[in-house]
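Internal tracking record. Fields below are filled automatically when a chain is submitted to the structure queue. Please do not edit lines marked as system-generated. If the sequence contains nonstandard residues, flag them in the REMARKS field before resubmitting.
Queue: standard
Priority: normal
Entity type: single polypeptide chain
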Amino acid sequence: MPDAPLTCLDLWCKAGSSSENKGEEGIAHFLEHMVFKGSNHLKAGEFDREIEALGGSSNAATGFDDVHFHVLVPPTAATAALDLLLNLVLTPALRQEAYATEREVVLEEIAQFQDQPDDQVLKQLLKACCEEHPYGRPILGFEASLKESTPEQMRGFHSRRYRGPNCCLAIAGAIPKELEEILSNSQLAQLDYKATDEVELAYQPNLNFRKGRLEIQIPRLESTRLLMTWPMPPAKNQEMVMGADLATTLLAEGRRSRLVHHLREELQIVESIDMDITVLEQGSLVLLEACCHEKQLKRVEKEIHKLLRASLDSTPKSQELERARQLISNGLCFSLEAVSQVAGLAGSQALWNRPQPLLAPLEHLPAWTPARLHKEMLPLLQPEHSFTLIARPMEAS
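SYSTEM-GENERATED OUTPUT FOLLOWS
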């Protein structure tokens, strides 16, 4: 937008919750909080004030695989904002007083998470199907681990993870002309880029998915939930990921999809039903969730199984597949309307050694013909390959 140019600076690091060692559970997310409490050159709160003074804003997020910190500023402020961002993230002060105070904030966040019925359902599902893998524990971590953590332990995590081979800076929007000079003189260029075995030590190569079934009761849950999840290839296998995206879209996105049309529109036995893929670096997950009345639960599960098995009887119709392709294409295009979204996708792809044009994943869609989807993908999404969780509202005593 020439009349309102913006620059997004997005610093990514392979320092998500899956890179935590035993006893560090929650420290990745806690560190995200502590970063904003000051650095070796910035006092607590000074970063936010300086970014706002430049006419910008900032935010951060921690996931299973990575963490990123971004600022959105006018292009004339990009150099100053980059210096502030790199100093804040790469040299956090981790002061004892701020550490104790912010730990209480994180513990309160965990308490709020534990008080949300929907969050607890998903937590129980991941814990059950991912077994001992880090994806099976909350990104927020455990209360006990956080209470025992220290600034020294956090410094060790930061030193181990926030290193050159683990970091990536994405810049989107109005790009400063002197970008190369700015970066070569920045703190990013001073990081240690020597590759060591320790850098990837915490990462497990594969997701240990467990098939099975679990029934639980959750306080204050508004309706009965049926959740099914399936393992899928990791993010680096983009062709299979796009195939899974096509299959889930065909099955349960929009009124014309098979599951929504049959269970909600025709039979009217679910309040809602959806199916999606969560793309992760060590193994992706497809999740189906249906909300219904308790008296309809058995029928809902029976009909879902029936429809999934019926998908093996014949190849998908060409118009079904074309509709799914169009929805996926629209979704990706619409997700790149803001410079922060562009920087986020570009940063994530480059961090995990997948630099490519932003719409490149769509190039895998034509390879998934109706016959191939029927032969290679739909058999993976059968009930016998899933973990099923039934969550019911806990009756008041």
